[in-house]
Amino acid sequence: MFLILGPALNLLAGFFWQNDTQGVTAGTIIVLSNACWLIGLIGLFERLRPTTPKYVAVGLPVTVFGAIGGVAYGVQSIHEGLFAVSHADAVERLGEHPFAAYAVYWTCGPLFPLSLFVLGLVLAKVRAAPLPVGIMVSLGAVVFPLSRITREASIAHLADLFLLLPFLYLGLRSMSRSPRGNRAIVPPRSCDEK
């Protein structure tokens, strides 16, 4: 369920963007979205662990730090709204605090889309999901930061939709498998062909 809630809330947040900032409501939804993403992705990584233990050992910590960056951006949006500061002014003021800027925003922030990009490739490579699902995760991860840099709501909606669709599939697939105790995201190829 959290694999669906994370990207769904992210898509919802885009409808609350304001002209020069994402605002308090969007920022709050972004924080909640990142929490859901993280819970869902931890479950997904656990399902991938048997087939790709080395990837999970590296990918999971990178994803956690990326989610922290996402939460930071959400909190920044809340503060922009609370203190009536434009996004450009907030970024400029952040420059006065290089440790915070580099540790949380410029390092952790990009890790989230990077982790999703690699996740899409891994899903496709180990056939844990159909090839189009893996490709959509990776493409969504590329479009996601572009939409946030440009602050164009239409690009953000497209990026969020690109991420929602494959995670909707993965989430529904995981939920339909969990009652029977099957931990696979998608049945092995040989089972599909029978």
Describe this structure in words.
Helices cover 80% and strands 0% of the residues. With 194 residues, the protein is mostly helical.
Overall pLDDT score:
86
What amount of the residues lies in strands? under 5%
Q: Could you state the order of secondary-structure elements as H and E? A: HHHHHHHH
- The domain count comes to 1
Shape descriptor reads: globular
Main sheet record: none
Instruction: Report the structural category.
Output: mainly alpha
Note the total helix count. 8
Q: Low-confidence runs (pLDDT<50, min 5 residues)?
A: 179-184, 186-194
N/C terminus separation: 29 Å
Number of strands: 0
Rg over CA atoms: 17 Å
Brief descriptors of the model:
194 residues; mainly alpha; globular
Short structural description:
The chain has 194 residues and is mainly α. It has one domain (2-171). The protein has helices at residues 2-14, 23-48, 53-82, 87-94, 98-125, 131-150, 153-177, 189-193.
Q: Layout of helices and strands, plus pairs?
A:
Layout: H1 2-14, H2 23-48, H3 53-82, H4 87-94, H5 98-125, H6 131-150, H7 153-177, H8 189-193
